Amino acid sequence: MAKIKIDSEKCKGCCLCVAECPRGNIRMSEIFNNSGHSFAEIIDIENCTGCALCCQMCPDMAIQIEDEKKTGKIAIKESSQRKSSKELMKKLE
Questions:
Q1: What is the per-residue pLDDT across 35-80, written as a single tens digit (0 to 9) for each?
Q2: What count of Cα atoms within 13 Å lies in the side-chain half-sphere of residue 39?
């Protein structure tokens, strides 16, 4: 089962993850974070497939997906922005 973690303080409420979730499993909260933004929240953790579309769309890197494999290891799916940054750093070395 996938575990989705949304950092409510990093989220600025852009709703891109809400629009991208194929299961409609993310909504905007009715409360605000310390910056005054409504933040994304998961509706039903059991309904999350771990597709990582939400974290790929998140411009603030506020979403992390963990997917436990049969081996018992945890694979973290990172946003494309994070991967791009890592690739750039490798090229600069």
A1: 999 999 999 989 988 889 999 999 999 999 876 654 344 444 455 4
A2: 19
Tokens of 21: 């979730």
The DSSP secondary-structure symbol of 61 reads -
Which contacts of 24-29 are long-range, i.e. CB under 8 A and separated by 24 or more positions? 26/54
Closest by CA position to 23, among listed 6, 42, 39: 42
Structural element, H or E, at residue 65: strand 63-68
What is the domain range of residue 68?
Answer: 2-92
User: What domain count does the chain have?
Assistant: 1
